[in-house]
Amino acid sequence: MSTTRTWLRHNLFRTRRDTVLTVVFGLLALWLLYKTFRFIFVTGRWSIIEVNLQLLMIGRYPEAHVLRLAVTVVVLALWGGLLAGFIRGRQVRSGRMTAADSKLSRARVTDLVERLWIPLALVVLLLMLTSTPGPWIMVGLAVAAALVGRLVGPFVGRLRLPPIGSLLVVFVFGAIPVVLYFYVVTAVGFDGWGGFMLNLFLAVCSIILCYPLGVLLALGRRSGLPLVRLVCTTYIEVIRGAPLFVLLLLANVALGFFVPDSLAPATSTRAIVVFTFFTAAYMAEIIRGGLQSVPRGQIEAAKAVGLSPIRQTGYIVLPQALRNVIPAQIGQLISLFKDTTLAGIAMGLFDLLQVSGAITSQEDFRGQGLIAETLTFAALMFWVVSYTMSRESQRLEKRLGVGIR
Predict the structure, then answer these.
(1) Is the residue at 49 inside a domain?
(2) Which of 101, 113, 157, 161 could potentially form a cystine with 90 if both were Cys, beta carbons 3.0 to 4.6 Å apart?
(3) Residue 45: phi, psi to the nearest 5?
């Protein structure tokens, strides 16, 4: 008790000025907390979310093909579990981990729940808003598939496979997401996608594509070849100097002046290209800062042991550079995820933000001022994903010892 009183006196009530500020901002925080809870549990009219939940999540995706989305979620859960277990098994085989540590113990499950309790709570909330058993069945099967994959994966990882067998396993793991992509797209093209699913798809594809491009641009800007350095520097400075919204407008409008409509890619594809090129330029500058943070002695030591320039970069310089700038990289990727809402405004895509505004014009909800409820739901969805990415990046920093000498 005395320790708490000492902390309060030292941090909040040290002087009269500190006391006044503490009381004023404390009352303001309590008032905001009261208004928030009152809006959520008393005055908020959430029926508009319950009625339009499917529209908010998957847009106008045809009802006849929704089963494909459910199958994709379950298979991806199985794939993720297998991949996690496979990595654990390889670590056991290489001696970096014991077999006991690789098992899915109760403590490991508890740790996973503590890390991901916010997105898990969001999933439970969404399930409670559903009126059909389909989503419950899908989530149950996905959880079961992830557990099965996690239990089976270590056995596959510990197998002593020949080089061809290892390549085959890597090929299978890489081919599963590609097959699922075509499985969904062949049924409904990008133009039929919408809702939060579209935001996630734009973000995931752009992140996967922009990261290697950003690394190459960063290395190119530091290259000793003048032409390569000039091209990379020009690209980075030009793209970083242009507003993302303008680039999206150009991709949506100006492309038609140069490419026939029959050859022009879908609007979602254009958005992915713009997000990829735009974020890669920023990622290149972040990674360049990481490259400059690597001590010169590391490079000289790599040269002393006879490593080639490519091996110096791949084994010594680049791993340290990427590790040093994890916070900035994750921050840029979170920004990319939130910027996907600009595609709806600039290119007419029916993303979550556009759906949130459109459903307030429905006959049952027109003129009732429900935009606060719909935007709150949209903000919650984006916040949960962004916060989870931030927390996981902090965990990765701690595991890699970023900032610890």
Answers:
(1) no
(2) 157
(3) -105, 95
Structural domain for 39, as ranges: 2-43
Domains identified in the chain, total number: 3
Same domain for 172 and 252: no
Kindly list the distances between the CA atom of residue 335 and the CA atoms of 39, 206, 316, 342, 344, in Å, as whole numbers in the listed order: 28, 12, 29, 11, 16
Strand partners, 351: 195
| First-last CA distance in the chain | 36
Exposed, middle or buried, 132 (CB in 10 Å: 0-12/13-18/19+)?
A: exposed
Q: By the 8 A CB rule, do 108 and 154 touch?
A: no
* pTM recorded for the entire structure: 0.89
User: Model confidence over 142-190: pLDDT tens digits?
Assistant: 999 999 998 888 887 777 778 787 788 888 888 999 999 999 988 888 8
In this structure, the answer to whether residues 152 and 215 fall within a common structural domain is no
Asked if residue 395 and residue 288 are part of one domain, the reply reads yes
Q: Determine how many CB atoms are found less than 10 A away from the CB of residue 114.
A: 8
Burial (0-12, 13-18, 19+ Cβ within 10 Å), 42: exposed
